[in-house]
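Structure (tokenized):
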């Protein structure tokens, strides 16, 4: 009987230990998630803004061949103005193209993910590109009469901070609209390798081909930058030197440059205003 009693006490202690351990684990996990905060907010930011983001397909048609470019974009006004990268439209030679309209451009299509399993596609026209100051272009959606679309909100990129959480939405590898989390690794970077020098926000994020032109949101759901390119390095140890290794370094065009770009166009009713963040 005494042996049975000891066994019962050991079992109870073990169960209590497991319960306490489990409770501690849950508490620590919840604390980490609450301290991070962005784990919860990312879902809400994506839900709130997914229908303002576009998967973009650009088709060039010539006698020799048909060429397709893919990228991303996002809506900045209810009447359908869209920001993307200039290289999404012009290709890698976007700076050399000057201000000319791309030759043999057949179509630009933007597809919105409604967030409910359905999509909607629109024809877009090229309005302008910000040459040669930043890798930006402005498009216009061909909307129906009286039709409006949901636009994003902006934040002043000069307030970006080291380690700040961000959410990037785009069309990686042409797979459709996707969201990925990351952080700001450097709030302001000047690239002097080109003339004029280019300004970027440096990100630690999984950026792939096709993310170009997509919005980078802060934890409050405001656009702080435009995904532009990723740093690549060749696999020196590989027999195939053409293999590129992603190293988690992404470049985004600051929202300040988007504001400057739009202000140069003097389009009636179109301007980029920065939302005020309440601390």
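Design, position by position:
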């Amino acid at each position: 009987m005494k042996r049975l009693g000891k066994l019962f006490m050991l079992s109870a202690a073990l169960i209590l230990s497991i319960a306490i351990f489990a409770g501690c684990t849950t508490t620590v996990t919840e604390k980490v998630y609450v301290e991070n905060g962005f784990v919860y907010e990312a879902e809400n930011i994506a839900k709130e803004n997914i229908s303002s983001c576009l998967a973009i397909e650009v088709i060039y048609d010539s006698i020799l061949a048909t060429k397709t470019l893919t990228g991303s974009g996002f809506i900045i006004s209810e009447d359908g103005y869209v920001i993307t990268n200039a290289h999404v439209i012009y290709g890698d030679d976007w700076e050399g193209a000057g201000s000319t309209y791309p030759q043999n451009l057949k179509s630009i299509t933007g597809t919105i993910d409604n967030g409910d399993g359905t999509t909607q596609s629109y024809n877009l026209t090229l309005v302008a590109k910000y040459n040669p100051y930043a890798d930006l272009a402005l498009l216009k959606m061909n909307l129906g009469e009286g039709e409006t679309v949901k636009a994003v909100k902006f934040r002043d990129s000069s307030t970006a901070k080291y380690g700040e959480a961000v959410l990037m939405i785009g069309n990686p590898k042409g797979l459709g609209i996707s969201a990925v989390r990351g952080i700001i690794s450097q709030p302001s970077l000047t690239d002097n390798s080109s003339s004029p020098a280019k300004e970027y926000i440096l990100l630690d994020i999984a950026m792939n081909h096709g993310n170009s032109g997509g919005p980078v949101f802060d934890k409050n759901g405001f656009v702080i930058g435009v995904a532009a390119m990723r740093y690549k390095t060749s696999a020196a140890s590989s027999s195939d030197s053409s293999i590129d290794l992603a190293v988690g370094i992404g470049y985004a065009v600051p929202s300040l440059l988007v504001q400057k770009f739009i202000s140069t166009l003097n389009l009636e009713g179109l301007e980029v205003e920065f939302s005020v963040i309440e601390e």
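Reviewer-requested clarification: The radius of gyration is 24 Å. Residues 6-36 have pLDDT under 50 and may be disordered.
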